[in-house]
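During the practical work, I selected for study one protein's amino acid sequence and its backbone structure tokens, as given directly below:
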Amino acid sequence: MAAGVLTGCGSGSAGASGTAAAATCDSTGGGKSHQSLPAPSAALVAKAKAEGKLVWYDGVGLNLPEIGKAFKDAYGITVEFQNASSVPLQTRFSTESQAGTYQADVINTSNANDFIVQSDKAGYLLPIDEVIPGFAMYYPADYLIADGQAAVMTIIPTLLTYNTGLVKGSDVPKDYTDLASPKYKGKLIAYDPRRSVGGLSYYNALLDAYGPDWLKAVGANTRKYYDSPVSLLQGLSAGEGAITLSSTASSVAGLVAKGAPLKSVEPPFVWAAQFTPAVSAHAPHPAAARLFAYWAYSEAGQAAINAAQQASSPLCLGALPKKVTGGDPAQAARNKTRILDLLGLPQQ
């Protein structure tokens, strides 16, 4: 399911502040019964506490201090984050591993299937069932990826977001289909799909849903592409564009809290980024890395992460929209030339 249509259990509709309701965990895992993970052993907890630190390479970048605090509150272990987009982080991790200069204990990135398969074969990452024995017995099977070697932890739906000073009344879009209208010519701004596998997968899902004519019209209406989701929302807040196709509730809420004139709309069809952590086979803090996995794949851990990032997860699907897709990264890679041509972007 990690590459297909996800199973939503409710609505995460964005409100006036641009926020969505935080997910709550239960024991169903999206309607499918599963056993809770066993607790980590006392010996593992003691070793992790003695190490006292976890280095987390993270491709989400949303409210990381809150997540670090939740893990520290649970186990007394300090989390040091290194944040960047998923592809640069994966490249950095691979380069460090090849050089034997191991820095990360855990790496958490989107569209990670191929990266994890290749890294496991190279001996850079540990399969999840080596980190948590018998893991597949406890976790919803639909969210296992990389031939069962890893599992999705976080699901972050994207929203349409607009600048309230520039878009009003009937001009507020309700669905992606609206964005092909000539009235939005030069008013759209977007994340550059050449910058990450997730970005390309997002546009590929829209191509599948709305067709090539729609995507070409949206490309013609887009005035600027940004290298990161952060700079994209900063540009939207500053009035560099009126509407963006992709944003997350947590990112928008953080800017709204600082006075940004932003509001989000949840379209009927939603693409969701899926983030998968993996433990380094050469983690400088191996016990802390393993303990993090136990926490991240528990109901308590996922509830804490989702609350910080206004996200959903395999054990906490309550805020996931009813019609949502995770896309197909492999198909997106095959369609890259076509997608960029339709958007009017040069190949890279």
